[in-house]
């Protein structure tokens, strides 16, 4: 999905390097998911069980709106 590529690419360029190691691991695990699952998480159709991933997704969303 081009939308995901743009959104996640922007996040990587602007934020990724400042993430703590556990969030870098979460982000890597997120990228291993199928695109429809990532999209569902980002638009809030599905909520992950990992509270740390929920916070990371919120940070990705905030980055999208700036």
The DSSP helix count reads 4
Percent of residues in helices: over 70%
- Strand portion: under 5%
Shape: globular
What's the rounded overall pLDDT mean?
Answer: 93
Sketch the topology as an H/E string, one letter per element.
Answer: HHHH
User: Alpha-carbon distance between the termini?
Assistant: 21 Å
Radius of gyration: 11 Å
Low-pLDDT residue intervals, each spanning 5 or more residues: none
Which structural category do the helix and sheet elements fall into? mainly alpha
Largest sheet: none
Number of strands: 0
Topology:
Elements: H1 2-14, H2 21-31, H3 35-43, H4 51-65
What's the quick description here?
Helices cover 73% and strands 0% of the residues. The protein is an all-alpha fold.
Question: How would you characterize this protein structure?
Answer:
With 66 residues, the protein is mostly helical. The protein is 73% helix and 0% strand. It is globular and about 25 Å long.
Comma- or semicolon-separated keywords:
66 residues; mainly alpha; 4 helices; 0% strand; globular
């Amino acid at each position: 999905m081009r939308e995901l590529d743009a959104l996640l690419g922007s996040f990587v360029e602007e934020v990724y390097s400042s993430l703590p190691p556990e969030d870098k691991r979460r982000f890597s695990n997120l990228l291993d998911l199928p695109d429809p699952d990532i999209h569902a998480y980002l638009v809030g159709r599905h909520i992950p069980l990992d509270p740390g991933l929920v916070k990371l997704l919120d940070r990705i969303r905030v980055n999208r709106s700036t």
